[in-house]
Amino acid sequence: MIVTRSWLNEWIKLDDISTEELAKTFNSIGLEVDRVESFDIPEKIVFGKVLECEKHPDADKLNVCKVDIGGSVRQIVCGAANVREGITVAVATLGAEMPGGLKIKPVQLRGVDSEGMICSSTELGLPKLEEGIMVIDESVGDVKLGDEVRTNPYFNDDLIEIELTANRGDCLSIRGVARDLCAAYDRPLKKIKSEDNDQARLGIGRLLQLMQEDTLDVDLTYRALDLKGLELPLTMRLRLAQIEETKESAIEGLLWYATYSTGVVLRAYHYGFFNDEEKGKAICTLKRDEKGFVSIYNREKASVVGVYQEDASRVSYDEGIVFIEASYIPPDIVSRQMAEHKIENGPHFYRTSRGSEPELDIGLGFVLNLFESYSESSIYGGSIDVSSKFTEKVIGISVDEINAIIGMDINKVTITKMLKGLGFELDKSKGDNFVVEVPRYRHDIVNKQDVVEEIVRLVGIDNIESKPFSFAEDNRFGDDYAAYIKRKVYRHRAAQSGFYETVHFVFTERAILEKYGFATVDKAKELLNPIAGTLDTLRSTMMPGLVQAASHNVKVGQKSVKLFESGSVFSAERQESVKMAFLVSGSSERDKLSNSGKAATVDFASFVQKIADVVGDFTLRENRPDHTFAHPYQSAAIIQNDRVIGELFKLHPSVAEEYDLDDTYLCEVDFDSLYYGIQEAKSYSKYQASFRDLSVVMPASMRYEEIEKVIDANKSAEIIRFYPVDRYSDEQLGDNVSLSLRFVLQSEEKTLEEEDITSSMSSVLSALESELGLTLR
Known about the structure:
Structural class: alpha+beta
CATH superfamily of the largest domain: Bira Bifunctional Protein, Domain 2
Shape: elongated
Strand content: 25-35%
CATH architecture of the largest domain: 2-Layer Sandwich
CATH topology of the largest domain: BirA Bifunctional Protein, domain 2
Largest sheet: 7 strands, mixed
Number of strands: 37
CATH class of the largest domain: Alpha Beta
Helix content: 25-40%
Strand order of the largest sheet: 25-28-29-33-32-31-30
């Protein structure tokens, strides 16, 4: 977006503000300045008036002019085709140094003396405005002959180019930029006066009839004029050249100038394109085209609102009736339509897609004033309007909220002044609570943070006090985090013990669970929409999934399969809990040199040891599961801290055969029951430990846990551990067996002597004999 000081000054008073300060203000309010360029006319270039203009006696293309430069009249030879008597021009007098380095001296051209140079715009360092010399008209204001051209603000101007973000369509006009500056400097926005003489004019209704087929999301206003004698003034042509815009005709140039000034999208239509001779007036239809764009039609399409205009409907004449259209369409609507249906677009689409000015009367009033000022055109009275329904955006925010977000205390009066300066309505606000009504042209303001950002822009980010960031995060090490770490620790333990992790859906096949006698979810609480027929229920155990996974591995050549999984299972009432399951199948290790390529098959004892490596020490108790997955004689409950936390068993041979598996062992434990916490260090004895074995004869039907209870109840403090090491039977023992137990004895106070050891062992043996009837072998 390119602006100039003189152009901005028509909307906001900037006489007391330097260009440097203006650029700093732009940057501070979020309108980033890309470049600043000065148009500085050199000294000794003055306003002059051509009093006489005669052909050069010895050159067809030269003219000898008498030019009044205030205090004197100079003779100047000029070769411009457009030089003529009576025009006001810029004259480089003797001694002037031009921007290109040329110094003006007295010269003779084909024998005629010349004292100066009548300048073109480019010779003054300005953009090219026309062929030949620059003709100065009344648009630059009153000029005094002999005054330096540099004293006129239109020629001694500064150009500022601003880089706008895509959401700031409201600043795609001189008025829009000035509106932001008004808020920054707390100054009023100047209003353009327009004469309202509609009562003395013919009405537009005699010329144009607009028909609308549906309710459309556009705003349109049409005015009519009888175009005649339009010429663009110098200031308008200069400014269009400065913003690098060239138009084919005067009317297109004037409309673009008005659009650039006010932000309102303006178009001119050929009266004859819409004229219906039978009805004696122009007929215009507003409807959607085949792609959904709001379009203007007669018999053919004239334009797509906010996108482009057909050449046939453009004004191609200098005199005649012209319709002027001012339009607005919400940027989100037109952008979405363009994304769905790519169509050609014209120069106005850039503005409409980012948000043009919705106050159409401002643009129309401005452009009609220009027509009346710079042409002999007559304006028709009245207008034809189309309005869309607009829902105001209202945002509630308090002073405390604003200050909390900014991190700086700004008083209510200052905030009020800033928001009102930006065009926000605050009439419904009460106390310290603002009810902010967002103006329609600020489509980018949608929430509280956007409102605060506007205040920050005007305060200036550099003016906000820097404060050290205070970060006091709440303790996030809650139950969920502890559960995550616990699962991570046990997963790592399993991997370190040689198990590979597998992951299954929490869904499984109900028929499989029922076949093997596992618990199932109550049918009243079953899944309503299963993702597949084989995943029609929530799993109550992870073991069938592990067995299926092991089977798949074996079928692709794996001789040793070690798997584990941790995850959720569900009770009949759909209560969720977390379990951890293990499976070992086939060889206990890989074939290698140490086992001569014939690894032993996994057995119950080695599987128990692997599980202990993961979950810690535990004891086993005889157990007969309800399901048919387990071998009836190789199954046990896992006891830890006097609680049953799971089960461990060999897979039933018939089930193993179904899945083509060798000897297979499974374990499933309640994950929440596994220990996880700080390990408490315990003192240990510095004295040597002693070992004693004790072999007792016991009935073959007696369970080991009966013996264990008796020993625990009667052992001395010196017996710190005991465990079975051998079980022997022969014909001589009959229905009895010999069980060998190893005792570890140690004292915290001394090295145990033989008497101490014998005493401890005797108390154990006596208790076994008296309570269970066991004797030494």
